[in-house]
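fyi for ur records
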Amino acid sequence: MAPKLCVLCAASRACLRRPKTSEAICKECFYSAFEDEIHETIVNENLFKPGEKIAVGASGGKDSTVLVHVLKLLNERYEYGLDLFLVSVDEGIKGYRDDSLDAVKRNQQEYELPLKIVSYSELYGWTMDQIVEKIGKKSNCTYCGVFRRQALDRGAEYVGADKIATGHNADDIAETVIMNFLRGDFPRLIRCSEAITGDSVGDSLPRVKPFKYTYEKEIVLYAHYKSLDYFATECIYSPEAFRGHARQFIKDIEVARARSIVDTIRSAEKFRTDPRTSSEQTLGACVNCGYMTSQKLCKACLLKQSLESDQKPDQGASQTKERGYHGR
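which gave:
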């Protein structure tokens, strides 16, 4: 029986079935389709402008490693004119973050990009290991999510970045859409599907998601076939119980219909364009650290106070947890 040919080029042997479209294609056509779609997202969503400094959130995980590789490739291929930097956050998790940072440092040498590492210990006076030792594992993701988001902003600010690029993929965004829908949090439901988020108030920088329509399975395949160097171990403190339910739901419907992930994102985009669902929030600067907040103190300062006063974080802080680039 003759080998099946790639449906795109009809010349090379098909070696994989593309998760997003179910097409049987060869490696070279997969590379082209993968990279071209990310380029289309960058162009169609106006993610970058020539001359901008872009801080790429680098965790050493598959998503951020592929993001660094593809952004550098596309920046040179299409002459975006971007100045790329790597920014990593050291949460202080022994046996996990120290190993993943080794992968980041290897990538920094391979791609010859500047690297800035910021740590929880220098910013907040606590490591995640110390936080978990003090409060246990039940609420640790609340602290880590808030601290990590602000730490990434601080690192990007240090290198003089104009924007932050994160490795959030289509699966991540679809999961967040489902989570916010189940919580009834429509302001976040609207924001989470945007390819560019952020505000000029305080120290927050715009964040861009070049992988907005890129499937996680395809990122894994790309990293595998390109033999990229990444750290594959999940965070030891990251059970993510509620997100786990949303993730399983997305995986289940993807089996039945591959387009379900993108369709979920498109549905959230419809909310964004409906004026009846618009929500404006007034933001100011934290009186303690200057970071953006809608209250007197930002969430990071409130959580730090709770650590120092032996109080548990309030529900408002815990419900604002968003998945950052951690492990991405």
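The chain has 13 helices and ten strands. thats all i got for now
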